[in-house]
Amino acid sequence: MQAILAVTVPFFALVLAGWLAAWRGVLPESAIPGLNAYVLFFALPCLLLRFGMGTPLLDLLNPFLLAVYLLCALLIVGFTVAVSLSARVGLKDAAFGALVAAFPNSGFMGVPLLVALLGPAAAGPVICTLLADMLVTSSLCIALSQLQGAGEQGARTAALRALRGALSNPLPWAIALGAALSAAGVKLSGPIETAVRMLADSASPVALFTIGAVLWRAGVHAHSRTPLAQYLPVALIKLLLHPLLVLGLGTAARQLGAPLSPFQLMVLTLAAALPSASNVSLLTERYGADSGRVARIIMASTVLAFGSFSALAWLFGVQPTG
User: Fold this and answer.
1) 46, 193 Cβ separation under 8 angstroms
2) To 10 degrees, the CA torsion angle through 80, 85, 90, 91?
3) What confidence tens digit (pLDDT) does each residue in 157-176 have?
4) Which residues pair with 258 in a beta bridge?
5) Please, are residues 162 and 284 in contact by the beta-carbon 8 Å criterion?
6) Alpha carbon distances (Å) from 258 to 63, 65, 73, 252
7) Span 285-302, pLDDT tens digits
8) CB-CB contact of 99 with 141 (8 Å)
9) What distance lies between CA 281 and its chain's CA centroid?
10) Which residues pair with 276 in a beta bridge?
11) Would you state the pLDDT for residue 152?
């Protein structure tokens, strides 16, 4: 456990540092969007480009891994919506709660954390889950959120809008470019390689710091007070039920003959055990959902994940590579 904590403590400490910096005003609120843009459009794409170049295409788009992960995502979304709907929580808010229950923080936290714990071989499965959530899970939940009031046509429009937004995100294209360069046998060199490496090396610390700042901002701009019973259960679905479901269905798929290795299943389960994606709070503001509830789910999952994720890694017998 000590070796695992030696990896996880710095990651979560940087999230806390970002939250504290924003809370104390050391990082001005006006600077947070710029920090987020730096990670999203520069640092993280370079990190994913490098992993895309060094990871076999079948690991990036493993059909069996995608099938297990997406089935689990669908089940988590459906279950979370079913248990969340109430007189206070409508379909729109239940759908965004389901999104944070099924969408782990794979990009900003998962890729660097799991690679630090398990080595570069973990990058492929984590990137695979990231693509699935960005393109499928988010589009589905946004479509569900628009069924109330807007009807099927509005839901279809919202889903297409979400899909266009995902396709305009630089992360999938950085992964695709890395895979294409790898397939063509092209290697970066000289000043270009140095610039990409410098940006990639900055991705992990800046992304973690940004998560904390974004969480603080989401909490400040929340316009409602959310009872504990309306957000803590969803955070627990994210941290406990989601990875348990992935592990169970993945194990069943292996027993039925699916070519999933124990290592891939472990990575998939640990990815599902990550806290909720912090940027979903920005989507709730855009679509007019209860941003306060979603912000509290994300915050609770991030705080609790330090213990739950570290414990799960220990139960798997993870031995950090570096």
Assistant:
1) no
2) 50
3) 766 776 776 677 888 889 88
4) none
5) no
6) 10, 9, 19, 9
7) 777 888 888 889 999 999
8) yes
9) 12
10) 104
11) 63
Question: Does residue 219 register a pLDDT over 90?
Answer: no
What does pLDDT average to over the chain?
Answer: 88
Residue 316 contacts residue 265 (beta carbons within 8 Å): no
User: 185 Cβ partners below 8 Å, 6+ apart?
Assistant: none
Structure tokens that stand for 42 in this block: 């520069």
DSSP 134: I
> 60 pLDDT exceeds 70?
yes
- Whose structure tokens read 């030696």? 6
Which residue segments constitute the domains of the chain, with CATH numbers given? 2-315 (1.20.1530.20)
The tokens 């007019």 sit on which residue? 288
Q: Is the pLDDT of residue 189 over 60?
A: yes
Helix 123-132 and helix 262-272, axial crossing angle in degrees, nearest 10: 50
Q: Specify whether the CB–CB gap between 308 and 274 falls below 8 A.
A: no
Q: What is the DSSP string of 183-231?
A: HHT----HHHHHHHHHHHHHHHHHHHHHHHHHHHHHHHT--S---GGGT
Question: Which of these, 54, 36, 193, lies nearest to 107 by C-alpha position?
Answer: 36
Write the Ramachandran bin of 85: left for phi over 0, alpha for psi from -120 to 50, otherwise beta: beta
Place of tokens 């070519």: 259
The first and second tokens of residue 95, run together, are: 């759908």
pLDDT tens-digit readout, 9-37? 999 999 999 999 999 999 999 999 999 89
Average pLDDT over residues 260-289: 89
- Token pair, residue 89, equals 């929580």
Please give the single-letter amino acid code of residue 98: A
| Average pLDDT rounded to a whole number, residues 39-62 | 88
